[in-house]
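Notebook entry, structure prediction.
Reason for the run: the old model in the group folder had no record of what sequence produced it. Starting over properly, with the input documented here first.
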Amino acid sequence: MRSDPADSPAPSYLALAVTVVTLALAYGVWYAYSVFLVALLREFGWSRSVLAGAFSVFTLVSGGAGPVLGTLADRFGPRRLILIGGVLLAGSLWADSLVTRAWHLYLTFGLLTAVGVATAGWTPAVVMVQRQWKARLGLALGIAGSGVGLGIFLVVPLCQALIDGFGWRWAFRALAILCALWILPATYLAIHDAQPQPRGPAARGEGGGWAAGEHSLGLALAMALNNRTRLGALFQASIFSSCAASAGARKCGPGTR
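New structure, fully documented this time:
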């Protein structure tokens, strides 16, 4: 009889711990936009609608990538996607530090960083967890999902401290280095693809259900739809942050515009 990976916890729990930290980095970048927005507003004096628009593009691209990533995870495995996502995320964050025009921000953060976050983030993580964990899938998904909260708790204040100490450009570069140093080696060493279990009629019941090749796509569709509603609050927080920054800038004199 085949044992649940939870019965031999070393490989599965190690991969789960790596996933938590990777999600913390990826979604820490996502939620840290509110503090980068303030710095960009002060330096360039762009309108709030321009800065909010870049984040809107980011959320649409990241959410829309879910079904595509689910399909790719079925074909190539989540481990490869996370590795590719780590490269994309690190490279796009470094590119974010070179922004000088509004369209640069839309291209680097709105498009490239969004693809990097999505590819290293939730969809491949869910596919990896559901393939490795069977009897305790809910627990494993809950532990993995805690990485998002961990990213808000740790990465966002870290970004604010880096911006205050070194400026927003070096804050982006520090995030790029951190993502490259963690996601690539940790994923390569600790995460291994497990083959999806075949789902015949006996396994999924008379009423039918997802086949093995459809399972990750279905999860990805669900996550993409969920993200669009779940992240509305973050969008509003970014707008409120920019409003506060604008009010502060008017008090600081013409140098901040």
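Summary: DSSP finds eleven helices and no strands in the chain.
The old model has been moved to the deprecated folder.
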